UniProtKB/TrEMBL annotation:
Protein name: DUF2946 family protein
InterPro entries the UniProt entry points to: DUF2944
Pfam families: DUF2944
Highest taxon in the source lineage: Bacteria
Native source organism of the sequence: Robbsia betulipollinis
Length: 217
């Protein structure tokens, strides 16, 4: 959290919070929702101002109830989530020492360290793990940006180590995609590491990972 935000909180500690004005969509875009948009049930206009997006990203956190918010100076702006509290982009390699190792970056531009992967019943790919936004971030879940599904398919085609399924989660005994195709229970993730994958119903995501998609005051 920015120091200027901490200072504002200390100076004005009782500013009422608000809901409905800010939304994170399925492609990791911040969207502003005015009164008319909220009344119409729209998702809002994409915020394109780079400095504002960076400010939101630096001050984006969750409270103890699993409600994600943007601390806008002294005011807490709770965020509506189109699906998950994070959306990640997938990259392969980068620095010379990384080789072809997959890596994830969240909507705030921070690395996302995956502990497991998931296929939901709507054809989405998700990762549970820990973000690194400079704060003590609890384990959470992120949706893979749909533009990166083809790149993810290349990861699926990678040769898996002999013990690739050894550390799969207990509920990964059967991993089936929405079209009925059997999916691997683990994906090679570089450095000899395999990432376990399992199916999960989309309707269970929020409860399982402890977040609120539509926060109320």
């Amino acid at each position: 959290m920015d120091q200027i935000v901490r200072d504002a909180l200390a100076k004005w500690p009782n500013v009422p919070a608000c809901t409905g004005w800010l939304l994170l969509d399925r492609r990791g875009q911040w969207r502003m929702r005015d009164d008319a948009c909220q009344a119409a049930g729209g998702i809002g206009d994409v915020i394109r101002h780079d400095a504002l997006k960076r400010f939101i990203a630096r001050n984006y956190e969750a409270d103890a109830s699993g409600r994600w918010f943007f601390q806008n100076g002294p005011q807490r702006v709770f965020v509506d989530l189109a699906y998950t509290p994070h959306v990640v982009r997938l990259h392969r390699g980068g620095a010379a020492h990384e080789g072809d190792t997959p890596r994830l970056v969240d909507e705030c531009g921070n690395p996302f360290a995956p502990a497991a992967g998931w296929f939901d019943d709507q054809g989405n790919v998700l990762f549970s793990g820990t973000g690194t936004n400079g704060a003590a971030t609890p384990p959470t879940i992120a949706l893979l940006h749909d533009h990166d599904l083809a790149l993810f398919a290349e990861c699926l085609d990678a040769d898996l180590p002999p013990d690739a399924t050894a550390h799969a989660t207990p509920d990964a005994a059967v991993s089936v995609s929405p079209d009925g195709a059997t999916m691997p229970r683990a994906v090679a993730w570089g450095g000899g590491r395999s990432l376990p994958f399992a199916p999960i119903p989309a309707a269970e995501i929020a409860k399982r990972f402890g977040f609120v998609q539509r926060p109320d005051l």
